[in-house]
Design brief:
The protein is mostly helical. The protein folds into two domains: 18-68, no CATH class; 70-172, no CATH class. The chain is 69% helix and 0% strand. The chain has helices spanning 2-7, 19-32, 39-54, 59-67, 70-86, 93-126, 146-167.
Length: 172
């Protein structure tokens, strides 16, 4: 945590995004500092959650989708689409459940690996190693950096692997 704070910081430009921590701070800070909490907003949120639940829409997923920035939310959306795809390809409910469970396990591994590589990246940046290749990752006339375009290829390969490995799962 100290290396992450010294490398990126948690506030200001270029800081690490921590929407959940910011949300919890916004809820707790008025109570800890003697201020009044926005009870009307909490009540509105509760009513929205109840309505979503009655409509059989997962309230937590909906609210996180509204709160988390799109650059963090897009992989969740793609993952949800993949989960739906692999869990609806068969008429056998047990096979569909096994496929979705396998996909969830694979996705969890990718999430953990991504988090670990984020820490490794922060350590390298803290040590002064420029593995980011800053010059190559600069937006050109089109407004898009070549590195961003190339990053789409591994993303699509990971999505393809998740679909392939999940569909290959047989019922246990």
């Amino acid at each position: 945590m100290l290396v992450l704070n010294k490398t990126y910081g948690f506030t200001g430009d270029g800081a690490l995004v921590a929407p959940q921590a910011n949300a919890m701070a916004a809820v707790i800070q008025p109570m800890m500092n003697g201020g009044s909490a926005p009870w009307l907003l909490y009540g509105i949120g509760a009513v929205i959650a109840i309505v979503l639940t009655l409509l059989k829409v997962p309230a937590l997923a909906f609210c996180l989708g509204m709160f988390i920035p799109i650059d963090l939310n897009l992989p969740l959306l793609v993952g949800g689409a993949i989960a739906w795809f692999v869990s609806s390809r068969s008429k056998d409910a047990k096979l569909n459940a096994a496929r979705q469970e396998k996909g969830t396990l694979i996705a969890s591994g990718f999430i953990a690996g991504g988090a670990l590589m984020g820490v490794v990246s922060a350590i390298l940046k803290f040590a002064g190693v420029d593995w980011y290749l800053s010059g190559w990752n600069t937006a050109g006339a089109s407004g898009v950096a070549p590195a961003e375009l190339i990053a789409v290829v591994p993303f699509l390969l990971i999505c393809g692997y998740m679909i392939y490995a999940s569909l290959k799962t047989s019922e246990k």
